[in-house]
Amino acid sequence: MTEALFREDAYLKRCQTRVVSVDHAGIELDRTVFYPMGGGQPGDTGRLTTGDGGEIPIVDSRYDRETGRHLHIPAEDAPRLAPGDVVTAEIDWDRRHRHMRMHSALHLLCAVIDGGVTGGQVGAAKSRLDFDLPDTALDKPAIEKALNDLVAAGHSMGARWISDDELAANPDLVRTMSVAPPSGAGRVRLMEVPGIDLQPCGGTHVRNTAEIGPLRVGKIENKGKHNRRVNIHLADDA
């Protein structure tokens, strides 16, 4: 199983690693800094660099739940690697950091809006959460102000782990109605903004809400009788 270095340190940009396998599905490494697509967050892109300077562009990173393989998807015309090759894995940091800021902002949005989450998507330019809020009018300026107040307050963010049994005993920790948090491995990772938000999450996040930067609330859309979609943007993109 690939050692997921990004779980403990989302700020790692590169690592030396060894190729475990290569097939039509992708490249498997013994350890990686690449976050695989999941939880609404896109997989990382970047490159693998061989000892002689050859580069293999990585256009996506995915986790195969059936096999438990963490796969790095190379560009179609990339040089081919072989098991045992030693490479340096390096992510597109600018893209990843935007995803970290956005994903962290969505946790704050969960704290600002009281409702079950029915879906979501992290993006570099726009992110969104869908809430189960029948017959509820949302105040866009008030949401934007509350989000930016939490950002400006500089709250710390960090991960901790609890057991599967602890999660089962505290079902209110789960905000997502459409996707159950991963369990069965004995422990579940929680992302915490102390006193603000606490919920299972395997994604990458910033260390402090101030790092997110100012936010802008975009469209608030009705996506069905029970579904209100709130879109957010990084204000420095405006």
Describe the structure.
This protein has 238 residues and is α+β, with helices and mostly antiparallel strands. The chain has two domains: 13-91, Elongation Factor Tu (Ef-tu), domain 3 (Beta Barrel); 96-237, Threonyl-trna Synthetase, Chain A, domain 2 (Threonyl-tRNA Synthetase, Chain A, domain 2). Helix content is 16%, strand content 38%. It is built from three helices and 15 strands. It has helices at residues 93-112, 140-152, 164-169, and strands at residues 3-4, 14-23, 26-29, 31-32, 46-50, 55-64, 69-74, 86-91, 116-121, 127-132, 158-163, 187-193, 197-200, 215-222, 227-234. The chain has a six-stranded antiparallel beta barrel. A four-stranded antiparallel β-sheet has the order 9-10-15-14, with helices on one face. Strands 11-12-13 form a three-stranded antiparallel β-sheet. β6 and β7 (69-74) form a beta hairpin. The longest helix is centred in the middle third of the chain and has 20 residues, at 93-112. The model has no long low-confidence stretch (mean pLDDT 92).
In short:
The protein folds into 2 domains: 13-91, Elongation Factor Tu (Ef-tu), domain 3; 96-237, Threonyl-tRNA Synthetase, Chain A, domain 2 (2-Layer Sandwich). Helices cover 16% and strands 38% of the residues.
